[in-house]
Amino acid sequence: MDWLGRIEFSTVDSPIGPVPPGEIVVVDPKTQKIFTGIYATRKICLQVPAYILAGLALYIPPIRNYFGRKKPGCNGDACEI
Asked: What is the Cα gyration radius of the chain?
């Protein structure tokens, strides 16, 4: 669905260490900022034209909390210890 070629898939080691199966890590190439969990999902959705509306919906806290509830740990700039 990424007909604009905005997403680059990579299997190199994650900058934050081992990634559990089923999880994703997104590194913004411009800022080198690292995203995981629902924030990584939002970042990807905003790059794929078919998923832009889903990505925008993830800015709404109740929607983000609902879909991100099973993704504990570090997300964007926040990290729960």
From this structure: 13
b (16+ CB within 10 A) / e for 51-68: beebbeebeeeeebeebb
pTM of the model: 0.74
Task: Provide the β-strand partners of residue 35.
Answer: 26
Please tell me the predicted confidence (pLDDT) of residue 19. Answer: 81
Compute how many other C-beta atoms are within 10 angstroms of the C-beta atom of residue 41.
22
Per-domain residue ranges of the chain: 1-81
List of residues 6+ apart from 61 with CB closer than 8 A:
none
Query: Around Cβ 26, how many Cβ atoms within 10 Å?
Result: 19
What is the dihedral sign for C-alpha 76, 18, 24, 8? positive
Identify the pLDDT of residue 56.
97
pLDDT at 72 over 70: no
Contact status, residue 51 vs residue 1, Cβ threshold 8 Å? yes
